[in-house]
Structure formats: structure tokens, C-alpha cells
């Protein structure tokens, strides 16, 4: 099917994610996470976007999003994932503008 999200990635789609800072992690880890996303969601055409996400968005956020999507039994997991990452990036963007401190970490997940 040619209804994948990749047509938009160059413009709107990846824009907010692209604005995030790169994570401080080895390239190998980024590659591993991008592959993980691809394995889970299986949308080859979004490979570039997944690589971008893996470089910018913490692994815990990515894994949480993917497990939520699986629990959801979403019809278009890849699309939903893209949407969730967009939302996350937008949230980060407004966080940076308003508050310089890191978000509260006491949400019961000690990873």
C-alpha cells in the first residue's frame, strides 16, 4: 500500500521531532532503537523517520508508545506512532519555552 506516512516526513511530519536536540547516546544505540521500532511497526518507508526518532527521543518514551499502541490494537500502528512522537516533540518544545527544569520524575518507573 502506498498510504504510508513517509510522503510527509520531509516536511511537516518530521519537523517537530527534527527540532529536538540529539540525545547523548552512541550511534549504535540509535541504530538499535531505530531497528527495534521498525521490527515492531514494520513500516519500511518510515525508516528515516524512525532513525530520526531514535536519535532524538528517549528509548523509554519510544518503548512506552509502542507498548501502548500494541495494547490498543491500533489499526495503523505506524501512523499512530508517528502521531505520538509528534505530540511528544510538540510537548518538549513548549516545555523548553516555559520551564527550563526537567519534568517531574516521580512517576513510579525507576528505569
Helix coverage percent of residues? 55-70%
- Strand content is under 5%
Cα shape: globular
Largest sheet: none
Q: Round the Cα radius of gyration to an integer and report it.
A: 14 Å
Average pLDDT confidence is 82
N to C succession of SSEs: HHHHH
- State the distance separating the first and last CA atoms: 38 Å
Global structural class: mainly alpha
Unreliable residue stretches: 1-11
The number of helical elements comes to 5
Number of strands: 0
Explain what the structure shows.
The chain is mostly helical and 111 residues long. Helix content is 68%, strand content 0%. The longest helix has 22 residues, at 77-98. The chain is globular and about 35 Å long.
Topology:
Elements: H1 6-19, H2 27-41, H3 47-56, H4 59-72, H5 77-98
Helix pairs in contact: 1-3, 1-5, 2-3, 2-4, 4-5
Structural features:
single chain, 111 residues, mainly alpha, globular, disordered N terminus
Short summary of the structure?
With 111 residues, the chain is an all-alpha fold.
Amino acid at each position: 500500500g502506498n498510504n504510508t506516512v513517509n510522503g510527509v516526513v520531509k516536511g511537516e511530519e518530521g519537523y517537530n521531532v527534527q527540532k529536538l536536540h540529539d540525545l547523548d547516546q552512541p550511534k549504535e544505540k540509535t541504530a538499535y532503537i531505530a531497528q527495534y521500532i521498525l521490527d515492531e511497526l514494520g513500516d519500511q518507508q518510515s525508516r528515516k523517520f524512525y532513525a530520526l526518532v531514535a536519535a532524538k527521543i528517549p528509548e523509554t518514551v519510544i518503548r512506552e508508545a509502542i507498548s501502548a499502541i500494541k495494547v490498543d490494537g491500533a489499526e495503523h500502528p505506524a501512523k499512530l506512532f508517528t502521531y505520538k512522537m509528534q505530540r511528544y516533540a510538540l510537548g518538549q518544545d513548549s516545555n523548553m519555552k516555559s520551564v527550563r527544569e526537567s519534568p517531574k520524575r516521580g512517576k513510579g518507573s525507576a528505569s
